[in-house]
Design brief:
- This protein has a single domain (about 5-224), classed as Methane Monooxygenase Hydroxylase, Chain G, domain 1 (Up-down Bundle).
- Helix content is about 85%, strand content about 0%.
- The protein is built from 9 helices and no strands.
- Helix 1 runs antiparallel to helix 2 (about 40-45), helix 2 packs antiparallel against helix 4 (about 75-110) and helix 5 runs antiparallel to helix 7.
- The longest helix is centred in the middle third of the chain and has 35 residues, at about 75-110.
- Mean pLDDT is about 95; it is low at about 220-224.
Length: about 220
């Protein structure tokens, strides 16, 4: 590998880990803002989103520059392609964190809803998936990646149960509808974060093993 390419790839790894840390922090803060009713923390997530967006653009430009100048092949090419895809997924997670923060901002400034759903349980699973996907990326750990992928159905089921529970509460008391819809949106955003964590794990498997495993759900539970 040419020395200049090696240096560029090392820097690219540092940058993708940087945006990963930024996105994970934003997501954690948004979820705390939602569960603990902290509007100020929600506003912080919203105000700082531009930092994630700027970093995402810089990483994309760096990936395109490396491919144009060095024309990497084999494992190096897979690494650059993976960074390009993961970078986009992380920016989307950041956007979802902002969406959750906006819901938290709305809900935190209004009377608490008169019912409880198992959002904390769903949040816990999503946090495990997001952190696990980033650990798998950092450590090139395909075993962990496959284990995280297998969790996606759990989050899908949790989202469905929360949807049904909130729907029933809105039928019983239409006056809570607007607040309940904000909570329902938060659940949907969480489910999308889990989907993106799954995408990241699929890309880790591609980067390490050169195997495309999208649309092959039957293999994950066997190997988890």
């Amino acid at each position: 590998m040419p020395k200049h390419l090696q240096t560029e790839l090392f820097q690219l790894k540092r940058e993708i880990l940087q945006i990963a840390a930024m996105v994970e922090s934003a997501t954690d803060k948004a979820l705390v803002a939602l569960t603990d009713r902290q509007p100020d923390l929600a506003q912080e997530v919203i105000d700082n989103d531009y930092l994630i967006n700027d970093t995402e653009v810089r990483i994309e430009e760096e990936c395109l520059k490396i491919m144009a100048l060095y024309q990497p092949v084999a494992t190096d090419l897979r690494f650059v392609i993976t960074v390009l895809k993961v970078n986009n997924d992380l920016e989307r997670v950041g956007d979802l964190a902002v969406n959750i923060a906006e819901r938290a901002l709305y809900l935190g400034q209004r009377e608490q809803l008169p019912f409880v759903v198992d959002l904390p349980g769903m949040i816990a699973d999503v946090k495990v998936m997001l952190t696990g996907s980033l650990d798998a990326l950092t450590n090139r750990d395909t075993t962990l990646a496959r284990r995280i992928i297998a969790m996606d159905d759990l989050v899908d089921d949790a989202n469905y149960k929360i949807y049904k529970a909130i729907q029933q509460e809105m039928f019983k008391d239409p006056s809570i509808m607007k607040r309940a819809l904000h909570l329902l949106s938060s659940s949907r955003h969480l489910e999308r974060i889990a989907d993106l964590a799954t995408n990241i794990c699929e890309d880790v498997v591609y980067m390490v093993e050169g195997e495309v495993i999208r649309h092959q759900p039957e293999i994950f539970m066997d190997e988890a």
